[in-house]
Amino acid sequence: MRLNRIIRNITASAALFILSMTVHAQKKQKPLLIDEQGSFAVGGTIKTEAGHFNVNDALSPQGQTFHGDHAYVFYQKPVKAHKYPLVFLHGAGQSKKTWETTADGREGFQNIFLLRKFSVYLIDQPRRGEAGKSMVEATIKPTADEQFWFTQFRIGNYPNYFPNVQFPKDSIALEQFYRQMTPNTGAFDATVITAAVSSLFDKINAGILVTHSQGGGPGWLTAIKNDRVKAVVAYEPYSGFVFPEGELPAPIKSAGLFGELKGVTIPLSDFKKLTQIPIVIYYGDNIAKEPTNVWNKDHWRSGLEMARLWAAAINKHGGNATVIHLPEVGIMGNTHFPFSDLNNLQVADELSKWLKQKGLDK
Amino acid sequence: MRLNRIIRNITASAALFILSMTVHAQKKQKPLLIDEQGSFAVGGTIKTEAGHFNVNDALSPQGQTFHGDHAYVFYQKPVKAHKYPLVFLHGAGQSKKTWETTADGREGFQNIFLLRKFSVYLIDQPRRGEAGKSMVEATIKPTADEQFWFTQFRIGNYPNYFPNVQFPKDSIALEQFYRQMTPNTGAFDATVITAAVSSLFDKINAGILVTHSQGGGPGWLTAIKNDRVKAVVAYEPYSGFVFPEGELPAPIKSAGLFGELKGVTIPLSDFKKLTQIPIVIYYGDNIAKEPTNVWNKDHWRSGLEMARLWAAAINKHGGNATVIHLPEVGIMGNTHFPFSDLNNLQVADELSKWLKQKGLDK
User: Quick one: signal sequence residues (chains A, B) (predicted)?
Assistant: First the structure.
């Protein structure tokens, strides 16, 4: 028993040592030469209480303000940056951390694309992370739900990992993954997020918007609102697909735990703005091809099907939208987070190829 | 009327132009050469609900986990870094943003000390910012209180700025300042914060802890808990001053809105650990010398007096603690945030001088 434990400890230490050597080897690729970096708040609104502020009654709200619903942005510009920066918008329950170091300590898209000479803007959307001041009240509870997310995010069907999954199978990485989630400090509101992200594009003038999951919906709306969005890259969008009035497809039934998936109608004049820019959508692996009762695989089947209907609608109106199901281009095993999976350099290469094709990496 | 408005607009544009030129000129000082950067969660606890997780009943909490109360850390290591990194812990209502770009767009301590070849670790403490997963429930309300904070933080007595204040007087900077606050997602708990920051020092091996305001208390506790803390630098600590049993000074009465200020007793053996490392405490300007009814100036008078009693107790036991009231060394006009004030390069120089004196910049 005791010997078993010692052997287990030695094995764990050896694994950690090998892991740290790998990380070290990766990190030593090249130093980053950063021309400028910083952070700021952008967008948001203000409420002012009635009355006049009295400095001798300073704990009373009269005449005081509350600023909220802004985004927080951290940016870095490498020396000799390409013209268009990449602007990263996270998904549900995530923050800008989603694009930083991966759960097992490898480089995320932040560093990978800095090394490829893109300026990066990492957003904490309004009511999330360091942009926590919300114009609406919220109650936050420590709800035990991580095995649900493990499954929903297609690492596997908990406690089983998908056999080919590109997610590290050690407990340290899984713990980091669970701890990178962070709650809403106010209800999710696509209009609020769109307003803040659009303000960011006003500030930076032009860029490529990269969204993940729930960020997809506000992503399309930002591109409609602001022609400074020069392209959209969406990883595994699910909700918020917008169609012109009269062209809404039937809801897609799904065994997924969020039920059937519906599109949303918008005026044709708004929809047509999405036909003016290149758009690419990526989905990972272990998504059902046909309806199934395996709920996570079926949830994402409905997302992928809706994305294809949506891209077809965009292209019918003269647009330029592509859906890439990564296994179909030979990239296997990706979870809901392709940009941080074990093969994220390969996933990044696929994006670099697309950016080059569209002339977006000048 | 219309001419007035045009002139006002021209003046505002000119001011903005001059501001942006200044920022630009500052930013162009030198590119940062970053050997490594990344982020991770550290510390924290786990709760597991009773029962067994069933993937076909995945929205039920049975057998599911919740990870919370970790810190989030973003770090950068410059090429040829000094031996000891600077580890930055923010104050109440703040996040790591507090050390980044200032409200008016200048370099914060993050960039200033990277350029001076220190590795930097920027913490979002447990239950704040991107470390939002809290083990305790919280309700967050959009409370209008910003004119209180303007006054409490000694920018002035709202709406008046202190005549010599080192805070920009334009509305854009003030808006950024208000928006950099972010709420607790669970009650402030010094023990929880100390545990997470101590775990960070275990991970990085050794470093210099730099705290602000409310971070001061967890700062002393971390240094007691973990001898990998090689020095503590505290900007304007207020609460959490620890004294050995039997040496607690009388509470200091104050017209400040938090009332009288009390120390806290700890065992002598713990207290003595604070005598083993160099400690420096800085306070800014517009703090009363004698008791006064101007509540913000009197609040910080009680803090400064308590800090002096505390440093005397440390030194009586053979320690090495210094309190520097910045106006007494000729640095005038600082608010509660000296490290981001208009003269923050001068404030940084003062810190660099101390680090050099103590041999901490090798």
Answer: 1-25
Spatial distance between the Cα atoms of B113 and A133, rounded to a whole number of angstroms: 29
- Do the Cβ atoms of A136 and B145 come within 8 Å? no
ipTM score for this prediction:
0.92
Predicted pLDDT of residue B80: 97
pLDDT per residue as tens digits for the range A70-86: 999 999 999 999 999 99
Q: Which residues of A touch B151 (CB under 8 A)?
A: 55, 58
Q: Are strands B264-266 and B242-244 parallel, antiparallel or unpaired?
A: parallel
CB within 8 Å: B63 and A178: no
Is A137 found in the same domain as A99? Answer: yes
Residues in chain A: 362
Task: Tell me whether A142 touches chain B (CB under 8 Å).
Answer: yes
Is there a single domain that holds both residue A46 and residue A18?
no
B111/A38 touch (CB, cutoff 8 Å), yes or no = yes
Given CB atoms, is B27 within the 8 Å cutoff of chain A? yes
Structural domain of B5: 1-30
CA B350 to chain centre: 17
Q: How confident is the model at residue B201 (pLDDT cuts 50, 70, 90)?
A: very high
pLDDT tens-digit map of A197-211: 999 999 999 999 999
Identify whether residues A47 and A169 lie together within a single domain: yes
How far apart CA B241 and CA B220 sit, in angstroms, is 8
Average pLDDT over residues A310-317: 98
Q: Is B63 on the interface with A (CB under 8 A)?
A: yes
